[in-house]
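Worked example 4.2. Below are the chains of a multi-component assembly; read each line carefully before continuing.
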Amino acid sequence: MPVVLEHLGKRFGDGAPVLDDVNANIRQGEFVALLGASGCGKSTLLNIIAGLEAPTSGALEVPSDGAAFMFQDAALFPWLTARENIELALKLRGVGKAERRAKAQELLELVHLGSAGDKRPHELSGGMRQRVSLARSLAQDRQLLLMDEPFAALDAITRDLLHDELERIWKETGRTIVFVTHNVREAVRLGQRVLLLSSRPGRVVQEWAVTEEHRTDAGLAGQLTGVITARLREEIRRHAK
Amino acid sequence: MPSKFLSGSAPNAAPAPSPDGFRPSDEASGSDRPDATPWAASGAAPAAHVHAALTRTSTGTEDLRELESGLDSLQSDADRKHRIDWSRILLPVAALVVLVLVWQFYVSLGVKRRDLVPGPLDVVGQMGLLWGEGKLQGAMWTSLQRGVVGFLISVAIATPVGLLLAQVAPLRRAFGPLISGLQVLPSVAWVPAAIIWFGLTDATVYFVVFMGAIPSIINGLISGVDQIPPQYRRVGTVLGASRLQMALQVILPAALPGYLSGLKQGWAFSWRSLMAAEIIAVGGTIGFGLGSLLDQGRDLSDMTIVMAAILLILGVGILIELLVFGPIEKRLLRRRGLLAGSTR
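Applying the procedure described above to all two chains together yields the following structure tokens:
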């Protein structure tokens, strides 16, 4: 089931529109990076796609079962262990008790945390927490996975590894992923397509396809990063006084 | 380093805002950097040797697992063993000994008459006498039993009410000020009313305990709920929690630290109200508790009984904190990683 956004607009109260005429078409199983500077309404757009907020104009088509969500901070519940955090997601989805444990272990293995299931969030490093958070969002078992700058707060070494990890998991699970980021390199590293959102109001101004060659050829990837950065800066310059 | 070069210079290679003005990094490196790595000079990148942040950095699932596991062990703390901390036991005992010595010293100065200010040994002797008569254990048991039963019933009433008030805005606006007010009102003020309504029965005692404990437990729970990071509710919504599931699986556990301090305060109020009720309402079918013992000491003008009763009431309070609330709270905070750096 694809995600279709048509002339989507959002404004809060009488203020200036946050999103204006957003159009996008995301295929099933696609990995789309949503790139933009601050104030481009990225988080609002994700909330609308997730069904947490309603658009003020336009139409959207999203999977009827909603979307899984991953936040910038892992947002794990500190009173539960890593495993229990995942089990809670399964429980709220209505998975039976016996099945929960096995499924949670499976998901922990998937993010390479099979032996850390009994640790509490404060005992885990930032990267491990984010992996548990990823496993939890996979536990929701939704085709569509929305990620709101999930690696923004991590150190560079961990982030590079998690890029590989996310790509692997995306390939293994066939999810449709919408990945919001401020980081051009991250967008190029992960997305099959990079959508650039303008700021105030947010609107898709340009998009680039990222091919398999970009994944292995750093020169090519660097070139694309340069092009996108230039376009992003042009967009930011528009707001100079 | 390929990664540094790429991430640093690629965006800067396009000084003009137009994408057309972009200069491919390959050309740039060929002319500017004679020592550039072969792939950059030739323009063809052998994938296996490129380790830039822009491309895949690991060579496969196994490699990735190994890298992650290495990083995990570097980034997380080693398990620490828990040992018995003797200072936790010795320091309070030392403080107690010092206080008793000061007391004994003051008494031996003979400033006041001995029957007005008895020494520690006189009080301990009186406790021994009372123990011999069976009065001490009886009074303590009666009070403790009432305090605990009254407290548990208060918890059972206050918890759902508190959750409801914390979650339903109109209810909270309507009753919030009243509950806060009730917490300020000394519950001993209810004793005369309770005696008129229920006579000298256990009902009077329990009523006063409820009026003391319930508002403070409700208030503790509400303030615990107020301090929940909004993110937790968002996660609950995203995970598809129903209203009831949200309350029981997310809100209540998240509010537990605040709720626990409400419970602690609720217990303190129960115990205080109980003592007040026992001191004021004596006789009838009301049994003989520590408060009654205190009142009896006053009637007999026997300061040793009064002091013994006060110390027993204090002792019960300390014991409940040490044996019940202390360990629960410590465990709760440790599991959430909130204990580091505290003086507990």
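Take a moment to check your reading of the output against the notes. The two ends of chain B are 50 Å apart (CA to CA). Residues 1-51 of chain B have pLDDT under 50 and may be disordered.
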